Amino acid sequence: MATRSLWRTRGKLAVAATALLTGGATAAVATSEDPATALKLCTAVPVRLYRNTVTAASIAFDYEYSLWGLSEGSFEKAKVKHEVHLRSARKLQELCFKNGGIYIKLGQHLGQLEYLVPEEYVQTMRESMLNKCPVSSYDQVCEVFKKELGETPDKIFEEFDPVPIASASLAQVHVARTLDGQKVAVKVQHTHMTDTATADRATVEVIVNTLHSVFPSFDYRWLIDEIRESLPKELDFLVEAKNSEKCLQNFRKLSPHIAEYVYAPKVHWNLSTSKLLTMEFMDGAHVSDLKTIQKLGIQPNEVATLVSRVFAEMMFRHGFVHCDPHAANLIVRPLPSGKRTILGKRKPQLVLLDHGLYKELDFTTRFNYAALWKALIFSDANAIKENSVKLGAGEDLYALFAAILTMKPWNRIIDPSVDHLVIKGDDRERSERQMYASQFFPQISELLRRLPRVILLMLKTNDCLRSVNSCLLQGSSVETFFIIGKVSSEAVVEAKKLQRKSLLGRLDVLLEEILLEVRLLGMQIALWLLHLRRALTG
């Protein structure tokens, strides 16, 4: 039986490989209008598909062969499975680096999916995908400059460091000094992105469609539409520049109470194009660099609180959300005004980088999403179901949707205690999450298929923020959830004020607002008591 299962799997993979290799290049070339581009695609697509197929077959065979005959639940099987997970994660890591571009972005996202993939994959991708991306040579950088600005960097800038300080999936960053002496960061798109972006889209599309036809429960076709829509925007750095300015305008207009605590580098428009972005250089510490943050006289819990507040305002008030807030895109520095906390520590300012991926939530989606988080914070089971259904989860998967958002089982989600959503980050919790991920994989896939793509991007943002919180706090804190509850609740009340024009309707909202303040005050008192109890018990 095991032998037949092994050969059935290998047979399916052979079918998938054949479809990939024969159909991928044809599909890519057929959809290209430019003969030169078509020729490049004809070369690039089969190479990528060959790598993908070999890696997929190798991983599948490793799992089947290594685990064959081992007793379920035994110590030996758990040990071997861990080793296979680790080997497979490294193979995927190598594939992402070889293919580059979109594959690195997919690897970065994989590193956030604790609710879906084994811990070994999460850790391997997190350790490598954010700060060890391939680098373009200085000659390639000069090639981009000549095409975009007509000159090499040394003619345009007073100083230009040929060695990049950072390299990401789509671009790398160099330090330079303008002719008038300003220190700047210059983001240069990798030269291969223009040629390979279309090839990457084609290969991902063929892979996802083929896997769905071979394994029907694997339905990630929504990923194709998302890549098709978001990638061209991420490859246009002028869109990124406009997003950064709009983000700050939203804070000044809609969230003036925290506007000074959020910053984005100023853009040098005269030195920027769709493939080059010249920005003000920012000094500070990456949000995951605890030692440097503390050396700056800033408390990590203050940073965690600020990050939660900033993104809660974006999601629930602005409806214009930075959807790639991983640690490399968030910098912390002391607030320029010099303000300090009650304990004399310096207050932090959050600097947002990489504004290429934003999503807009329409009024209804923003209202329902805020109402859902309000319900999650206050353990309101009926409201959780109602708003989950409105967002597309369905009456059968609303509890799973809530579990993915909070990383908690249903019994904890509806627990009325003030710290019911706090993630401890210990081995027991991680093991529990992995068990649920394995047990409910088909249901998770179905849920992701159902949800609107904008909500899927909110899940991605949520995953990134959870990872950042984990770095800062080794888990999460009650304070961050209190902030989410406060901002989401206030956003719901504000939205209702706009909707209800009659006197009776306004009185109803006023009463709700008063009750909300009472609930928030009660939650704040519960927080103080919780801290007091922890302090007294050591």
From TrEMBL:
GO terms for cellular component: mitochondrial inner membrane. It comes from the Eukaryota. The keyword RNA-binding does not apply. One of its GO terms (biological process) is mitochondrion organization. Transmembrane segments: none annotated. InterPro entries: ABC1_dom (IPR004147), ADCK1_dom (IPR045307), Kinase-like_dom_sf (IPR011009), Mito_struct-func_regulator (IPR051130). Keywords: Signal. Pfam families: ABC1. Residues 129-387 form the ABC1 atypical kinase-like domain. Residues 1-27 form the signal peptide. PANTHER family: AARF DOMAIN-CONTAINING PROTEIN KINASE 1 (PTHR43173:SF19), ABC1 FAMILY PROTEIN (PTHR43173). Belongs to the protein kinase superfamily. ADCK protein kinase family. This is ABC1 protein At2g40090 isoform X2. The gene is LOC105140019.
